[in-house]
Write a structure and sequence with these properties.
about 150 residues, alpha/beta, CBS-domain, three-stranded mixed sheet, 6 strands
Length: about 150
Amino acid sequence: MQFYVKDIMSTELITIKENTQIRDVIKIFVNNDVSGLPVLDQDGYLAGVVSSTDVLKQESSHSFYNTTMTKNYELELLEDVKFFDQPVSSIMSEDLYTVEPDATIAKMAKIMYEKKIHRLLVTEYDKLVGIVTTFDVLKLLATSDEEVVI
């Protein structure tokens, strides 16, 4: 059986606006168990992507990253750090890698491998319709049988 991006992508999307504060992005990461989010401009078009890695690269020396974290500790620590008041547009990646829903899993995996990314935005007619992550691919592999053709 051949699988396509539309078969494994997530369509219940959490998106943020480019003026969302970094502190709020981290809260969304923590509260929704995600590590990346599509960023939309004020008109609702894709402007970028932000990941937990983007945050870590910018503020990796802060004690926030050197401590065993719980949800409450993370949220308390965020309240006093100036870095986290900045808009997400200051750290997001503007390199948008997309794939169409009818693309094969092999095509999707090739893009993710070549670009060294863990999430790929799924667009149709320039509209964001889903997101697919390396976790989605692993989930497919873990639950599929020998008849699966990727």
